[in-house]
Amino acid sequence: MNHDGIVEKKANRGKRSGLTSFSPLVYTIFYLINIIVFTFIYSFCFKNDFDHSPISFVQSLYFSIVTITTLGYGDITPKLDASPLLLTISAQVVFGVVFIGLFLNAISHQLSDRKDFARQEEEKETEEKNLSKLLTILKPVVIEFLGILAETYKVTTTQHGDTLVANPRELFNQSYYDQICRQDFLSDETRYGKGRMLWGNYIDQENSKFSSGIDDFLNKYATKLPIEIIALLAALKLHPFLEHGKTALKMRSLNLPNGMTFPKVNLLTMEHSSVKIPNKPKTISEFHEDLLTLIDLINGKTQGNDMVMRIDLRKGVTAPPVGSAIGEIISFGPA
After folding, report:
1. Is the peptide bond before 320 cis (omega within 30 degrees of 0)?
2. Same domain, 158 and 88
3. 108 and 134 share a domain?
4. Is 7 contained in some domain?
5. Membrane-spanning residues where (predicted)?
6. Which of 89, 114, 139 is where one domain is finished?
7. I want to staple 60 with a disulfide (CB 3.0 to 4.6 A). Which of 43, 51, 127, 238 is the partner?
């Protein structure tokens, strides 16, 4: 569906210029004013220029009505030698025909506008239903990714407790960003147990699933989506936040001089380091803000419960353990 076309039609609906821009009521008022004005003209200027003169005010009103409506019963007739009166009558007839035409044109436009509005509302309703269906298809991809963010929260906190059920909009704040930026991508504890996979590999694997899920969705349904949603999904899919696990592992593979060990840091911590960098990147907050926009959109357009994050903080119940991937904040240079 052409969304720009609908917006343009709505913007132009009812817009006319010149004499055709008024409502039918305005032309009706002009029509009545025409009758009254010419009634006074006939009564005061030409009352002796009719056969069976003089005519009364009521007769002038009657003659004005039958003249503008072009009925012309012939019971009141002007003298044939009264040229000014004949010109006046002709002018009233012309005005009457013009106002009737404008009135009918305004009625036609009004009916057309109502029809267009009803059609546009129907198209909008259909569009909303289709969008709801599409976002329902995308919803499981986002829910699964929220599960990964819940695990990220779990392995970067020292707080034990019960299962925390959190609204992403309430959870995603500066304290949360400060916490997850400390991920130790070299930790060897994941949901699969200890020693089977590095946390960086696991996160990269799950982030790739999220990117692939969005990619598959766009490949199938991009032609049916508003451009704003396509741009939002593309921004999430290509966001550098999803690459930090892979980047950390690449850093680990660098050849270090003898005796040096690879610190438990990653590029995310640059956002919270003591180094003052002009235009310091904000990949954490930017990504989560875009994700919140998508979550709000899906929650608002689809049926069912709103999406939440379930964070299992119970000690020793499920892997990975609480606080198992806490790294260090980069700290060098003057604070």
Report:
1. yes
2. no
3. no
4. yes
5. 25-45, 57-73, 85-107
6. 114
7. 43
The mean pLDDT value for 253-258 works out to 64
Contact present, 236 and 287 (Cβ < 8 Å):
yes
Answer yes or no: is 322 within a domain. no
Q: Count of residues for the chain?
A: 335
Tens-digit pLDDT profile for residues 181-235: 888 888 999 999 899 999 999 999 999 999 999 999 999 999 999 999 999 999 9
Q: How confident is residue 9, by pLDDT bands cut at 50, 70 and 90?
A: very low
C-alpha–C-alpha distance, residues 236 and 225, integer Å: 16
Distance of CA 41 to the CA centre of its chain: 59
Lookup: tokens for 322: 């609480």
Q: What percentage of the chain has pLDDT greater than the value 90?
A: 52
Half-sphere exposure of 20 toward its Cβ, with a 13 Å CA cutoff? 11
User: Is 227 inside a domain boundary?
Assistant: yes
Burial of 334 by CB count in 10 Å (0-12 exposed, 13-18 middle, 19+ buried)? exposed
Can you give the residue range of the structural domain that contains 297?
125-312
> Do 303 and 219 lie in a common domain?
yes
The answer to whether position 333 is within a domain reads: no
Classify each residue of 307-330 as buried b or exposed e, where b means 16 or more C-beta atoms within 10 Å of its C-beta: bbbebebeeeeebbbbebbbbeeb
- CA end-to-end distance (rounded Å), the chain: 54
Residues 98, 173 within the same domain: no
| 88 shares its domain with 164 | no
pTM for this entry: 0.67
Q: Which residue pairs, CB below 8 angstroms and at least 24 apart, start in 224-227?
A: 224/1, 224/130, 224/134, 225/131, 225/134, 226/3, 226/131, 227/3
Question: Residue 45 burial by CB count (10 A; 0-12/13-18/19+): exposed, middle or buried?
Answer: middle
Per-residue tokens: 221: 């349904």
Statement to judge: residues 110 and 131 lie in one domain? no
Question: Residues 6 or more apart from 98 whose CB is under 8 A from it?
Answer: none
32's enclosing H/E stretch is helix 24-44
